[in-house]
Design brief:
alpha+beta; globular; 7 helices; four-stranded antiparallel sheet; 242 residues
Length: 242
């Protein structure tokens, strides 16, 4: 069992703020639409849709809202015109930032994301300029208060299901998987009635950057806050050691 979480501070999460719940539901709704368009409305035959549904449930999206989103996308697939785009760049002190977005206007989104970096004295780079500093991993977070299972038993259940690593934090348990094994591990834990606060494939930084200058701290926070406010931005990954 790991003594220190390698997943701490990997993502600036919108869903941590209750006030952002509506926005989070909108974001997930877009992901549902994309998943249905690409693989159909049946989660049994659409692994991407299953993943988005799991994310929706982890964010407490009501089942009827999930079903309405799937039916809407399936019934009017021609209107689903969101496109997934990724931007990579640098923040203060050489920090690395990856931005995932879903947009119906790439020019608008690119300009907005670039503006977020510029206002925080960062810069957009070319595709691949920082992503090599991250590893793509499945990540499952379990709230200790919502888990009745003993830590050792939970660790064995996760590892037996195919997880790569298990970490115990102050208020949560964190499970890491290879992206290819993520669905199997998540489904195995779900079958045992384990409530997951978060379950998704994410980007884990290989190393972290510590910022000490007050200006650098203010500027990277500005970049992350501005990105969080952008409606097209779905997720932000960075290697700043907060």
């Amino acid at each position: 069992m790991s003594g220190h979480s390698k997943f701490a501070n990997i993502k600036h999460k919108k869903e941590r703020n209750d006030a952002a719940k509506g926005k989070t539901f909108t974001m997930i709704g877009r992901e549902l639409a994309i998943a249905v368009k690409e693989g159909g409305p049946d989660p049994a035959n659409n692994s991407k849709l299953r993943d988005v549904i799991a994310k929706a449930k982890a964010n407490n999206m009501p089942n009827d809202t999930i079903e309405r989103g799937i039916k809407k996308a399936a019934g009017d697939a021609s209107s689903v015109n969101y496109e997934a785009v990724t931007y990579e760049g640098y923040g203060p002190g050489g920090t690395a930032i990856i931005v995932d977005a879903l947009t119906d206007n790439k020019n608008r989104t690119a300009a907005n994301v670039r503006n977020c970096f510029t206002k925080g004295y960062g810069s957009i780079g070319t595709q691949g300029c920082v992503s090599y500093m991250f590893d793509k991993k499945g990540q499952i977070i379990i709230d200790k208060e919502e888990c009745s299972m003993d830590a050792d038993d939970l660790m064995m259940a996760a590892l037996d299901a195919g997880a790569e690593d298990f970490a115990e934090e102050e208020d949560s348990y964190e499970v890491a998987t290879d992206p290819a094994d993520f669905e199997a591990v998540r489904d195995a834990l779900d079958a045992q009635g384990i409530v997951m606060t978060q379950a998704e494939v994410t980007m884990i930084p290989q190393t972290y950057v510590t910022l000490e200058a007050e200006a650098d701290l203010m500027n990277i926070q500005k970049i992350l806050d501005l990105l969080e406010e952008d409606d097209d931005v779905q997720a932000v990954y960075h290697n700043w050691d907060e």
